[in-house]
Design a protein that fits this description.
By secondary structure, the chain is mainly alpha-helical. It starts with a helix and ends with a helix. It is built from 4 helices and no strands.
């Protein structure tokens, strides 16, 4: 008798290992970019004053929120249509950059404009990437 079960088990093991690797990469990217975003937000919020506990807490909060949303998009994104996924990343990028710009004492119109331009650019790049690299 032929035993076909080990071959199927091997394929399943390789698929699970690839999924774990993708999850680890998404988590690493989210944590590193969240760290950068949090430090940047804390620096902008400080406004040339001394570093205090409030600035540190603000940076940690911004970084955790950024990383959480990015990780959620990375996990939920593959189940979305390509257009919706690109739009979600565009909206996320636009809001993130617009918010950082609003911390620099510019007008809300300028922050909105920069966020809109950034969001549109991120959405177009993501749309192009998903249409050229995914089936």
């Amino acid at each position: 008798m032929a035993h076909a079960a080990p071959a199927a088990h091997g394929r399943h093991h390789r698929q699970m290992a690839a999924t774990r690797h993708a999850d680890t990469g998404a988590l690493t990217r989210a944590v590193l970019l969240g760290l950068v975003y949090g430090v940047w937000a804390a620096f902008l919020n400080r406004q040339q004053g001394p570093v205090d506990a409030g600035n540190v807490f603000y940076g940690i909060l911004c970084g955790v929120l950024f990383a959480g949303i990015m990780l959620t998009l990375a996990r939920v994104g593959p189940r979305m249509k390509q257009e919706t996924r690109a739009a979600a990343y565009g909206v996320f990028g636009g809001i993130a950059v617009g918010y950082l710009n609003s911390l620099t004492d510019h007008s809300i119109l300028r922050s909105s404009w920069i966020g809109l331009i950034t969001g549109a650019a991120v959405g177009v790049v993501a749309f192009y990437r998903y249409h050229t690299r995914e089936p």
